[in-house]
């Protein structure tokens, strides 16, 4: 059952064998209600959001409840401007600049909910000039 199934319905039937006649029920209004989006979660691969510089990072977003169609957007450091859309955010080659706090937002057009934030930490050697070590 989906939202677009809302509308007026009635039942029709034939009665009698020799001289069949059509009979109709009263008109009934059926209103399909949407389930608000809730229980948004974010999972990282590799787990925990710690990834070596140059490796791949995949973040996936899912919802516990909510009628669709669902859409997803990805955000970093609390920015309202999305990094990407869709249930997955993939970084093929992470860099130190990719470290930070990420979250996804799920919406069904009527309601929206955010996942808890996930801290992504990129591990690996930094440029000694950038860190002031020299």
Write the layout of secondary structure elements.
Blueprint: E1 7-9, E2 12-15, E3 21-24, E4 28-30, E5 41-45, E6 50-52, E7 57-62, E8 71-76, E9 84-85, E10 88-91, E11 100-107, E12 112-114, E13 118-123, H1 128-131
Parallel strand pairs: 6-13
Antiparallel strand pairs: 1-4, 2-3, 5-7, 7-10, 8-9, 8-11, 11-12, 11-13
InterPro entries: Cell_adhesion_signaling, Ig-like_dom, Ig-like_dom_sf, Ig-like_fold, Ig_sub, Ig_sub2
Pfam family, one: Ig_2
Organism: Haliaeetus albicilla
* Topology as a string of helices (H) and strands (E): EEEEEEEEEEEEEH
Q: Please tally the helical runs, counting DSSP H or I stretches of 4 or more residues.
A: 1
**CATH architectural designation of the domain at 38-123:** Sandwich
CATH superfamily of the domain at 38-123: Immunoglobulins
CATH topology of the domain at 38-123: Immunoglobulin-like
How much β-strand is present in the residues?
A: 35-45%
Sheet with most strands: 6 strands, mixed
Large-scale geometry: rod-shaped
Q: Which runs of at least 5 residues are low in confidence (pLDDT < 50)?
A: 128-134
Protein name: FCRL3 protein
InterPro entries: Cell_adhesion_signaling, Ig-like_dom, Ig-like_dom_sf, Ig-like_fold, Ig_sub, Ig_sub2
GO molecular function: cell adhesion molecule binding
Pfam family, one: Ig_2
